[in-house]
């Protein structure tokens, strides 16, 4: 044992430098052509440059990869072992190039969209159909979630795009690493049963409905209604609660209550037995698409966001 050697030094093999993938691919050309000169011609390099890469690879491997034979070279047993891995490396890189090209040209990729119910039935449904027709190779997933759950899914990486709404009295909390794309304004509308005395009015305000029985929607919509009616000077007599806008209209149609619904909910499913009226002097809710900044550069996500914007524009068009 040398003076400064320990038992650990004798037992543990010394770590070799990492093999350079580029040098491995260059060595592969030497093996394919049978010479350093041939590899240089294929690569468009000089012969000394190829030799330098092979020497660097041999130093990292710790064994000779080529042996001189006359004016040429032959591949050693260690070199042939490396060539098998070099072929696998070249094949894997080629597969990666093809797969990345598929993503870049939208022949592949995955997009997960989370959206609240009425936007799912209108904006998201149109966008998914549009995207599937334009880029059939993209794996599309749509999940119906209310805004708080959709934003939580976005933060956790469980979706790529969250379509959400917000009222003036309650802003959604967008993650710090996300961007907001405005999609639409969604006016609120009064839903009345047929023959109701107010149906003849040119303008209906919330305080005109102070004595009515009400049916309310989701938690955010109920909270907004209570805030708005408080500002109008009354507390609504809420008899029914459901986040299903089909049920809301059914209850109104049977004269059990009146309701306020966003325009998207009425457009998604209109009950012919109710009347729909604009709500005067009331701010609409706003609909947005929220995406993580890191995801916007992904081609499939960018294409999906563009499709969502087209769908929203088509709905907003006169």
From TrEMBL:
Keywords: DNA-binding, Transcription, Transcription regulation
Top-level taxon: Bacteria
InterPro entries: LysR_HTH_N, LysR_subst-bd, WH-like_DNA-bd_sf, WH_DNA-bd_sf
Domain HTH lysR-type residue range list: 19-76
Residue stretches spanning the membrane: none
Family, as annotated: Belongs to the LysR transcriptional regulatory family.
Name this polypeptide is given: LysR family transcriptional regulator
Species annotation: Microbacterium schleiferi
